[in-house]
Design a protein that fits this description.
Strand order of the largest sheet: 14-24-23-16-17-18-19-15
CATH topology of the largest domain: TIM Barrel
CATH superfamily of the largest domain: Phosphoenolpyruvate-binding domains
Shape: elongated
Largest sheet: 8 strands, mixed
Number of helices: 33
Structural class: alpha/beta
Number of domains: 5
Number of strands: 33
Length: 884
C-alpha cells in the first residue's frame, strides 16, 4: 500500500512472500510462500491479498479496478513456469482456489479444486496421463465442488447421484467406480447443475476462475465463518486471501495419495510415532471431510516409503522453522511428495501444555516465548472437563476414533439447527452426524460433544472439536441411520432426545448417562506453566468465593486471596432463610434484633471458615447487596394465595401478612432501587450485624492460628462520597467495639465496589473515604450500556452480534471503549488523590484473558474471578506482563 492509502499491488507470487506477511497474504498464503522460500516441494501459484477481499466486499461486491489485469499476468507467469495452460485441449493446467485468512479458520470458508476442467480439457488430461479414470474422477469432483461453492447447487443432489451410481454398480467406495462410470456421472452432474441453475455448466476456464475467486471472497461473510470469528474473537474486518495454486493429484492411482499430519500428537502432545491420516488414490477433501475413513499415517511407510521418509524429514524441518507444532497437508502424485500447506496446529488443552513444556525442555523456546506464543489461557479450562469413570462404566456400545478428549453426556440430536436450538435453551445435547461439515459449526458450538459415523483424527469434526475443547468420537462404523429418523448402534436404537454418552479420550460410546469423574487439575505440565506464569506476572489473581469450600478450592487453584465474598449467598440456606424472612417482616428495629443475633451466629461461622481457608491472604467481603424483598416469597404467588382464600371463603393470615410486607418492599426497578449502601443507610442494623460477625470471626482465627486475617470490608453500590463516609463511619464504629470486646488487634480496610458510572467519574472524591476500590464490572457494564444482562443475552444480543452492532459479548469481554474508559478514568483520578489506594476487579471479566490484558494495562493491582478460572487468569496476567 502506498503512502496515500491506495493499494498498488494486490497479487503476489508464492516466491515473493514469507511467513512474516500473514496480515497481507493470510496464514495459508504466507506459509506456502515460506515453504517455497525454504526450497520445499510446493506447487507453484499466487495469492490475492486480504486487503483486496475487503476492497471487494466494501466496493459493492465487485472486483477492484486492475485486479483482473494482475490475476491475468500472474496466471500467464504460472502457465509459463509449469509448461501448461488453463483449459488447454492437450496439456491443461488445473488449479485449486483456496481461502486463507490471517488466523486459521479450518473449514469455515470455501475452496474449489480441479478448476480448469471442461468437456475438452478433460479429454486432454485423460490422453496426457493415459488415465481416463483419473481425469473423469477429477471432473466430477470439480463439477460437484463448483456447483456447491460457487453456484449454490445443494451438494446433496450430487451425493445422491454418486451413491445411486455406487449402488447400481454394487460397490462401496468411490475408488471402485470405473472410468466409464465416472464419465456417465459427469453427464449426470452437469444435468443436475443445469436443472438448478437454468444454464449449462461453464466451459470457459477463466470465467470459472473469476467466479471461484468471487466465491472465496464471499465466503468470508458466510454464517459459519462469522460464527467461528465470534467464538474465537477474530476481527470481522481482516478479510481472506485467495490462493490460486497448481493442482497436484493424489487420485492418479495406487502410488498416489493425500493426507493431513501433525508434527506431534495434537490430542496428547506426545512426540513419537508420526500422527495423522492419509488415503491412497484420493484428493485432500476426502480426508478432512471424512468421505472415506482414512488410515493412520504410519501405514504410509509401507505404501510409498520414499515419499513417507521425505515427509517426516520435511515435517521436522517445518517444526524447527516455526518453533511450534505444525499441521501439514500433503499430496503424493505418482510417488512424488508435494507440500500444500503448513500452519500452527489446533490442539487439545492436554497437548497444548505438554507441547509448550517439551519445546522449552528441548531448547526450542524460552519460558517467556512459550507463554506468549503457545499457551492459550482459555484452553486451560478444558483440563477441568469431566472424564469417564472407567471403573464403573458399562460395556460400550461401540468404539471409534478418540478424536477430542473429555466425556460428554446429552440428548441425541441429528441436525446442527436442533443442537443450536436446544443448546441455547440450556439443554445438554450430543450432535450425531454421518460426518460434520463447516455448515454444522453453529450446532457444534452449542453441543456438549460430537459423534460421527465417518472420519478420523483429521476430519472436520475432529479438528474443530479439538480447537473448541469439545469431546468428540469420530469414525464409529457401527452407526446406522434409518429412514425413519432413528440411529442404530449395535442392538440399540436411538431417537432424537434419547440419552447417550461419548468418551473422546478412549473413543467409546455408551447408551444413557455413563458415570463421570471430576478432572485432575494437577496436570504436571500445567503446573510447570503456572510456575512460569507466576514468575512473569505483576498482577495478583484472587477468586470470587462465598463459602469455605469455594475458598479452599480457589486456594488449591493458586488464588492469592478472595476478591469478592458475596454475603447474600450465605442467607439462602434452608436453616437461614426463615430467619431472614422474619427479620425483614419485623415491625421495627427492636423486633428485628433477635433475628439479627441469630444470623450473626451463622455469619460468624461462615467467615471463620473462609478466613481459615485463606489464612494469611486478603479476603474482601461485600456487605449485603440485593433488595430485601428478594428473600421473601413471590408477590404474584402471595397475591394468588390471598385471592384464592377470599374466593373460597377461607382465611390465609400468613399470606395476608407477608403480602403486605412484600408490597411495601416491592420496587418497579429493584436493580436501581433500595439495595447496596442504600439498604445500609436505611436499615443500618443489618450491616452492623455483618461487620460484627466479620470482626468476631477475624479475632477467633487470629487467636486460633496466631496470624490475623487480612480483612477488607466492601460497601456496595456507592455513587456519592457522602454515602461511603456514612457507611465507613458505621463500619469503623462496630469494628472497634468488637476488637475492644475481644481484646484483640486486627487490621482491616474499608473500601467500595465501583459499579456505577458516577462512582467512576467521581473516583477522586470517593477515594478520600476508601482504602481500596474493586470494580464490579458485571453491574458497571449493565449501568453503562443500559443493558439488562438477562434480557440482552436471552433476546437482542444475538442480533447485535449477527448484525455487527457489536463484535463481542460485553458481559464476557470488557467493553474497553465504554466501561473500560470509565475504569481508566477512575484509576487515574483515584491514584492522583490517594497514590497508595489498592485497585482490583471482581466481575466475571476477571477470568477473561482479553479483559485481563486490558486490566493489566489500566494498572490494576489484581483481578478476581471464579475459582475455576484462576489458572486461566494467572496465565493471562503473565501474558499481559510479557506483552502477548
Amino acid at each position: 500500500m502506498g503512502t496515500t492509502g491506495v493499494i498498488t499491488k494486490r497479487v503476489y507470487d508464492f516466491s515473493e512472500g514469507g511467513r512474516e506477511m500473514r496480515d497481507l497474504l493470510g496464514g495459508k498464503g504466507a506459509n506456502v510462500a515460506e515453504m517455497t522460500r525454504l526450497g520445499l516441494p510446493v506447487p507453484k501459484g499466487f495469492t490475492i491479498t486480504t486487503e483486496t477481499c475487503i476492497e471487494y466486499l466494501r466496493g459493492g461486491h465487485a472486483f477492484p479496478l486492475g485486479l483482473t489485469r494482475e490475476v491475468t499476468a500472474h496466471l500467464e507467469a504460472l502457465e509459463q513456469a509449469v509448461g501448461k495452460r488453463l483449459g488447454d485441449a492437450e496439456n491443461p493446467l488445473l488449479v485449486s482456489v483456496r481461502s486463507g485468512a490471517k488466523f486459521s479458520m479450518p473449514g469455515m470458508m470455501d475452496t474449489v479444486l480441479n478448476l480448469g476442467l471442461n468437456d475438452i480439457s478433460v479429454e486432454g488430461l485423460a490422453a496426457r496421463t493415459g488415465n481416463p479414470r483419473f481425469a473423469y474422477d477429477s471432473y466430477r469432483r470439480f463439477i460437484q465442488m463448483f456447483g456447491d461453492v460457487v453456484a449454490e447447487v445443494p451438494k446433496e443432489h450430487f451425493e445422491r447421484a454418486l451413491n445411486q451410481m455406487k449402488h447400481r454398480r454394487r460397490v462401496e467406495q468411490d475408488v471402485d467406480l470405473t472410468a466409464a462410470d465416472l464419465t456417465s456421472l459427469v453427464e449426470i452432474f452437469k444435468d443436475i447443475y443445469r436443472e438448478h441453475r437454468g444454464e449449462a455448466f461453464p466451459q470457459d476456464p477463466r470465467a470459472q476462475l473469476d467466479a471461484a475467486i468471487r466465491a472465496v471472497f464471499e465466503s468470508w461473510d458466510n454464517r459459519r465463518a462469522r460464527d467461528y470469528r465470534r467464538l474465537n474473537r477474530i476481527d470481522h474486518d481482516l478479510g481472506t486471501a485467495v490462493n490460486v495454486q497448481q493442482m497436484v493429484f493424489g487420485n492418479t492411482g495406487p502410488n498416489s495419495g493425500t493426507g493431513v499430519a501433525f508434527t506431534r500428537n495434537n490430542v496428547t502432545g506426545e512426540k513419537g510415532e508420526p500422527f495423522g491420516d492419509f488415503l491412497i488414490n484420493a484428493q485432500g477433501e476426502d480426508v478432512v471431510a471424512g468421505i472415506r475413513t482414512p488410515r493412520p499415517l504410519v501405514e504410509l511407510r509401507d505404501e510409498i516409503p520414499e515419499a513417507y521418509d521425505q515427509l517426516i524429514r520435511t515435517m521436522d524441518h517445518l517444526e524447527q522453522t516455526y518453533r511450534n507444532m505444525q499441521d501439514v497437508e500433503f499430496t503424493i502424485e505418482d510417488g512424488a511428495l508435494y507440500m500444500l500447506q503448513t500452519r500452527n496446529g489446533k490442539r487439545s488443552a492436554q497437548a497444548m501444555v505438554r507441547i509448550a513444556v517439551d519445546l522449552v525442555a528441548e531448547g526450542v523456546l524460552s519460558e517467556q516465548e512459550a507463554l506468549t506464543s503457545l499457551v492459550e489461557p482459555d484452553q486451560v479450562r478444558q483440563l477441568l472437563l469431566p472424564q469417564l469413570d472407567l471403573e464403573r462404566a458399562s460395556t460400550p456400545l461401540a468404539k471409534g476414533v478418540n478424536a477430542s478428549p473429555g466425556a460428554a453426556v446429552g440428548a441425541v440430536v441429528f441436525t446442527a439447527d436442533e443442537a443450536e436450538r436446544l443448546g441455547k435453551a440450556g439443554e445438554q445435547v450430543v450432535l450425531v452426524r454421518d460426518e460434520t461439515t463447516p455448515d454444522d459449526f453453529h450446532g457444534m458450538i452449542e453441543a456438549q460433544g460430537i459423534l460421527t459415523a465417518r472420519g478420523g483424527k483429521t476430519s472436520h469434526a475432529a479438528i474443530v472439536a479439538v480447537g473448541m475443547g469439545k469431546p468428540a468420537v469420530c469414525g464409529v462404523t457401527a452407526i446406522r441411520f434409518g429412514d425413519d429418523g432413528t440411529m442404530r448402534i449395535g442392538s440399540e436404537t436411538f431417537r432424537e432426545g434419547d440419552r447417550i454418552t461419548i468418551d473422546g479420550t478412549t473413543g467409546t460410546v455408551f447408551a444413557g448417562d455413563a458415570p463421570l469423574v471430576p478432572p485432575d487439575p494437577d496436570n504436571p505440565f500445567l503446573q510447570t506453566i503456572l510456575e512460569w506464569a507466576d514468575r512473569a506476572r505483576t498482577m495478583a489473581v484472587r477468586a470470587n468465593a462465598d463459602t469455605p469450600d469455594d475458598a479452599a478450592r480457589a486456594r488449591a487453584f493458586g488464588a492469592e486471596g478472595i476478591g469478592l465474598c458475596r454475603t447474600e449467598h450465605m442467607f439462602q440456606g434452608d436453616d437461614r432463610l426463615p430467619i431472614v424472612q422474619s427479620m425483614i417482616m419485623a415491625e421495627d428495629a427492636a423486633d428485628r434484633v433477635p433475628y439479627l443475633d441469630q444470623l450473626r451466629v451463622f455469619q460468624t461461622s461462615d467467615f471463620e471458615g473462609i478466613f481459615r481457608a485463606m489464612a494469611g491472604l486478603p479476603v474482601t467481603i461485600r456487605l449485603l447487596d440485593p433488595p430485601l424483598h428478594e428473600f421473601l416469597p413471590s408477590l404474584i404467588e402471595l397475591s394468588e394465595r390471598v385471592a384464592v382464600a377470599k374466593a373460597t371463603g377461607r382465611t390465609d393470615p400468613e399470606a395476608v401478612e407477608q403480602l403486605a410486607v412484600v408490597q411495601q418492599l416491592h420496587e418497579v426497578n429493584p436493580m436501581l432501587g433500595t439495595r447496596g449502601c442504600r439498604l445500609g443507610i436505611e436499615w443500618p442494623d443489618v450491616y452492623r450485624m455483618q461487620v460484627a460477625a466479620i470482626m468476631t470471626a477475624a479475632c477467633t482465627i487470629k487467636r486460633e492460628t496466631g496470624a490475623a486475617p487480612i480483612v477488607e470490608i466492601m460497601i456496595p453500590l456507592v455513587g456519592f462520597e457522602e454515602e461511603l463516609r456514612i457507611m465507613r463511619a458505621q463500619v469503623i464504629e462496630v469494628a472497634e467495639i468488637v476488637l475492644l470486646e475481644q481484646r484483640m488487634a486486627v487490621e482491616y480496610a474499608v473500601g467500595t465496589m465501583i459499579e456505577l458510572p458516577r462512582a467512576a467519574l467521581r473516583a477522586a472524591q470517593i477515594a478520600r473515604e476508601a482504602d481500596f476500590f474493586s470494580f464490579g464490572t458485571n453491574d458497571l457494564t449493565q449501568t453503562t450500556l443500559g443493558f439488562s444482562r438477562d434480557d440482552a443475552e436471552n433476546k437482542f444480543l444475538t442480533h447485535y452480534l449477527q448484525n455487527n452492532v457489536i463484535t463481542f459479548n460485553p458481559f464476557e469481554t470488557i467493553d474497553q471503549d465504554g466501561v473500560g474508559r470509565l475504569i481508566a478514568i477512575a484509576v487515574e483520578e483515584s491514584r492522583a488523590e490517594k497514590p497508595g489506594i489498592k485497585l482490583g476487579i471482581c466481575g466475571e471479566h476477571g477470568g477473561d484473558p482479553a479483559s485481563v490484558m486490558f486490566f493489566h494495562g489500566a494498572g490494576l493491582d489484581y483481578v478476581s474471578c471464579s475459582p475455576f478460572r484462576v489458572q486461566t487468569a494467572r496465565i493471562a496476567a503473565a501474558r499481559a506482563a510479557l506483552g502477548a
